Amino acid sequence: MNEFENLKGFYDRYPSEWVAWRELVDTVEETAREFGFRELDAPSVEPTDLFRVKSGEDIVEETYSFVDKGGREVTLIPEQTPTRARLVQQRKDLGTPIKWFDTSKRWRYEAVQKGRDREFFQTDFDIFGVESVEADAEIIACAGTIFEKLDVADSVEFKLNDRQLLDALLRGLGVGESKDVMRVIDKKEKISRKEFLGKLEAEGVDRETAEEIDELTAISGEMESALVELSNKAPESEAADEAIGRMHDLYNALSAYGVESMCRFDLSIVRGMDYYTGLVFEAFATESDLRALFGGGRYDDLIGQFGSRDVPAIGFAFGYSPTMQLLKELGEWPDETISTDAYVLTISDSVHEIGLKYAMDLRRGGLKVETNLTDRSVGEQFGYADRINAKYTIVVGERDLNEGVVTVQNMASGDEKQIPKDQVVEHVLNLL
Amino acid sequence: MNEFENLKGFYDRYPSEWVAWRELVDTVEETAREFGFRELDAPSVEPTDLFRVKSGEDIVEETYSFVDKGGREVTLIPEQTPTRARLVQQRKDLGTPIKWFDTSKRWRYEAVQKGRDREFFQTDFDIFGVESVEADAEIIACAGTIFEKLDVADSVEFKLNDRQLLDALLRGLGVGESKDVMRVIDKKEKISRKEFLGKLEAEGVDRETAEEIDELTAISGEMESALVELSNKAPESEAADEAIGRMHDLYNALSAYGVESMCRFDLSIVRGMDYYTGLVFEAFATESDLRALFGGGRYDDLIGQFGSRDVPAIGFAFGYSPTMQLLKELGEWPDETISTDAYVLTISDSVHEIGLKYAMDLRRGGLKVETNLTDRSVGEQFGYADRINAKYTIVVGERDLNEGVVTVQNMASGDEKQIPKDQVVEHVLNLL
């Protein structure tokens, strides 16, 4: 018969592969917890209208959206921000800061290609209800700590900008409608200088100002010196001075957290989405041609569109696929190997139940234990113990038991030791 | 504006509620790992045809099934068994036993009512590739250990039966097509004796045999004595004797695991689904009118329907909602309270960055730490520390720092202690 396949863009992750994923997810979630983010759980399916608020009608084409049996238009969530907006709006009693994380699956109906999965994991981090630089700094510090824990902090950098700062600078140069100009700046990295200037002129910016914008948005680098350069080159503007001051405060906080060396100021970072209102940042791999690992920013005006109260917000969504690629490139992807603390080997049927008792007592001690479920020979059992990477094999045999002992074999060294039969569990627990 | 709501049958779980869920999920997964089950990850959406194999065309009506933008009929997985069958078939190289678990969401389009959610979590446990009683016993022992860890083992019992045993007994009584009769037995608990006998007669069983079936299927209770009773009452049959012997072996293994006191033999347990081929079991709450917590069994013929090789299998799906209800009834549901190890309080802006350093160093020590993100007063900060249940508040103030100390306050007792400022992190790490 025909065998079945999974859908394109969806993944089967067998246990050995999943071991490595699990380690990565655990690192991300452990960091979230240490920073005081609280885990929540929310639906994977929402009314399509919820996504229209932020993304308009296009969202229907880009997602798994369908009409359910009750006639409701529903969508497999492509992101969790609209859901979180709903959750923040429906519980006015929540004290601030509201700091949330969770890891869950998201779905997008995309052309299947490398790095564009139709089903993917994300861990969303958000701080709601606080407008301060301190919240901005905490978000960056948290993201930076993830890479520290993954031992790749030296190979990752955060490019930071502030939309309010950019807006103030543009206004200082006489640009009225800064959003259209920002969209051009967002594309700057991908186009030639000539094209860049042309596109600015197409937005009604005169040639001279376009050149000034080109020069200003070239400012990037180590934060402290970039901010000095910016102060020197910036047009006179109170708003700009204020925004530069805020960026200085951010730098000081990032230094206190010890993550300032991962951060660069880059005035050309805008991020595509219109809803960002302040800090924007993207994580890049410095020694790789990977696209941005992920990005985030402040979106103080978005939550208010989902209900009756305005709530400032800053966050990012940690995406797993690009980080997985980076870790593989750097040789830091965890081993795709299952692990087992102990295998209980039984030499004959007559000792099978004694073997089960040992297995159970070791498990009660918190160990990961397997034992013989079939009528395998001693050799086959050792082969299985090796295959599941058992650290120790507990060999239970009738002759040994009659002499009051059980043999414990270290599977790496091959060393074996006879242990009094009533001290086996304690002995193995102490070894591990 | 109108605020948004989640879909009916879907749940928002805010952090305080989720704390308790997380504890339950962690207990289930920890048990799985200790028993040597390996975690995997698989798609949440599969081709609808995959579910038709096991469940026929009805599955379309009972699930979130729709046609995607590429014209594919797809389904949000209502269970993971068909996916696992696919995974087992597509990797012929996997050595046995294949022991898998994972916790993920499932979806069913059901009439919304208590205990019937449209989106729900399940942890599936399966052992593939092993036909032995040992695998049966390990599955039950694993399920039993979950309830031991939840401190409710005394209030849960597993009703066990073996379809092959029941089949042998029915054949011994002259019943030819035992599957139809088993379907009647499956309903026995819910109908009167008269109805039961009538339904058996409607299946072509004569009155006398129907009464014998009624008597036999009344056998239930502590396994050892029930098996003695069964041996006495069973019609002469080699197949029945063999099946009774197998149940004895299972009892011995369950005793070795120490979970036999949770197990009862019950010849009326059949489980609805036709695909079970051997052991069947259901977990019940003994002091509650909750329906079965979950059930499982052996299904040796199912995997072969998904591909070219036959693979014996036994498993169960741990369902969370009924267990949650049980734990609540028994007062064993974990506290719905967020927890925090330390809050770093800063008395003035001037010490803010020193506070950030302490917070970061405590986090590097693995603690869950929050600090001040706004311009809150000392009183407001203590209020916040209390609200997030911080165990300790580290009070950083300029005057203290000038004297070389920081104050650490135990939030439960109110005791405070001045600690040399360079020993604060070590001190707090030692306290926790």
TrEMBL record, chains A, B:
Catalytic activity: tRNA(His) + L-histidine + ATP = L-histidyl-tRNA(His) + AMP + diphosphate + H(+)
Pfam families: HGTP_anticodon, tRNA-synt_His
Molecular functions per Gene Ontology: ATP binding; histidine-tRNA ligase activity
GO CC annotation terms, alphabetical: cytoplasm
Binding site for L-histidine: E79, Q80, T81, R108, Q122, D126, R271, Y275, Y276
PROSITE patterns the UniProt entry points to: AA_TRNA_LIGASE_II
GO BP of this protein: histidyl-tRNA aminoacylation
Domain Aminoacyl-transfer RNA synthetases class-II family profile residues, every copy: 1-134
Keywords: Aminoacyl-tRNA synthetase, ATP-binding, Cytoplasm, Ligase, Nucleotide-binding, Protein biosynthesis
HAMAP family hit by this protein: His_tRNA_synth
Family, as annotated: Belongs to the class-II aminoacyl-tRNA synthetase family.
Name of this chain's protein: Histidine--tRNA ligase
Species of provenance: Haladaptatus litoreus
Originating gene: hisS
